[in-house]
Amino acid sequence: MTTPGPLAGIRILEVGVMLAGPYATMLLADLGADVIKIEPPGGEISRQVSDSYFASLNRNKQSVCLDLRSAQGRARLGELVADSHALLVNMKPSAIKRLGLTYESLREFNERIVCVAMTGFGLDGGDDPAFDYVIQAATGVAAMTGDPQGPPTLPGYSSVDNSTGLTAAVGLLAKIVSGRGGQVDVSLRDVMLSQLNYRAAAFLNDGIEPRRYPDGAHSYYVPAQLFSTAEGYLALFITHDAFWAAFAAEAGIEGFPTMAERASQRDEVLAVVSAALAADTAANWESRLRPLGIPVSAVRTLPEALAATPEVVVTAGDFDLVGSPIRIAGYEPTYRAAPRLDDHHALDGGAARANHSS
After folding, report:
1. In a domain? residue 215
2. Distances, alpha carbon 343 to alpha carbons 35, 43, 169, 171, in Å
3. Where are the membrane-spanning stretches (predicted)?
4. Based on CB atoms within 10 Å of each CB, which residue in 29, 70, 132, 177 is the most buried?
């Protein structure tokens, strides 16, 4: 017998586009929430990217096709809202308001509905285009990433969209737990500035502007960066003196016993560490240092990482995907295929209630 997920009985409507919104609701669906993806005629735009792209963000959901610009579509939305706990939407603020996807517009159908708006700059922040890479540029992330002598750099995945999806899911659940309906406002810009926590605090309180260090080095900890080895690159992250003592003994390095000394003599420390690590391969250093409890990893490609952790790969329909990162004792998610467009067009409140109780 399948154990119900911790969010069983929670019904969430999604008017999501591409990544941030669909990722948030997929995480909730993996935990047992009943997620209904409301799509426009022709389907949500990410269906046009690739089948695997859509599957990676929309498993465990149902699809209902509605034209929210029509009176009929808005009436149908009201029926769904009346029997739901939350609505999550990521669109431009003007579109959210125009389509009536706010708490003020929907409370007439359900006083306890939680409405989560995911936008670039806030529900009242205007309609300037706000895509992942644009926000990385706008918030200082790109400026502090990359080689000091090179151009600003963007990471190889959608860090802003994914982070905002996680944040929106937390806000949605917090409001549901409160037992009161209302509006939740989450912006891509604010999420990324929040994630720059200690960098922002250093500037706001001490006037320290972020600077780039070679090889992605940490601004406080030394050594904590990438190093070239005899074969491959190694990430080494020494945060306290016990780590350093164990590493130095294995690498044959003397001196620099305290964090303060290593920080004040950064160049000298990096020179001796680089020379030591160049004597062996990244894979061998990892196997030598990990048993000592030292934070270290050889740099792997994504295919190599997936091959090393096959337990994270799940099958949903025709696709192999990375499963939920949330492990809950006694609950094993069931991974269903992403929905075909409008495959639950006949869904009504009664059917949803029956689904909750089954």
Report:
1. no
2. 13, 11, 25, 29
3. none
4. 29
